[in-house]
Amino acid sequence: MDTMGKYYLPTGMRYATIEERYQFYNKEFSTKKVAEWFCYDLGRIKFAVIIGKHTKIGPQKYRKETATTIIIDEYKDLEDMREQILEFLPEAVYYDRNVYDINDQKAGQELAFDLDPENITCPIHGSLADKMKRRQGLSFCELEFDMVKQEAIGLYEYLEKQFSVLRLVYSGRGFHLHVLDKDVYDLSTKKRLSFAKEVKEEGFHIDEWVTTGEYRLIRLPHSLNGLVSRIALPIEKEEMENFDAIHDRRCLPNFLSEITF
Questions:
Q1: Which residue among 49, 126, 138, 221 is least crowded, i.e. fewest CB within 10 A of its CB?
Q2: Residue 137 has pLDDT above 90, yes or no
Q3: 257 Cβ partners below 8 Å, 6+ apart?
Q4: pTM here?
Q5: Count of C-beta atoms within a 10 Å radius of residue 133
């Protein structure tokens, strides 16, 4: 495992430098792929960035805002959105799962499930509570990643019995499952909470705040996860069993693509 900075991470994963973030968003970040992700077109999308909450890396002029969530809701097009990302050079880029009408009022919300490796109880590193005591709450190892990958496969298979439009995304650390059936956008908070409890009772370690909608931001597919230097990658469920986040070239930014792990 690499131990660069605050968190221990699987071998080959590390914080992206500010220069590497610039390189990625200036040359590699694909607004075309982002547009394809939002092909269902359910209204104007709000984006958000966090400059350096966990890595403590960011532009000097924004050193006081490294942990602040900055909303990007005024932009001409996705290229303009990219230019604003280049201004902040964040460790993370998100989008708001809420759907807004022409009056900027909430008209619904995408349903999502978030599976992160730190929530796995590891035979080596212990439970999340153990990791938090060591101030290693976002740390994870190869074993924890493999365990959360198996959970994501199981959760997908569980959800596909109830929903018809599912998308799976490797987030850089764990996995996000997006439910895009149109009728889920009208689900009440109570119903979302019920779904979260149901899934937890089945043994899946999800982030309930995401599923209930209390935390409405989710990592933007095709953006860079600066904590681990991996691209958030939409992935087919059939690929999951053999998915290798250390070596899969699709999730390696160019600044790592020449490196042999």
A1: 126
A2: no
A3: 249
A4: 0.93
A5: 11
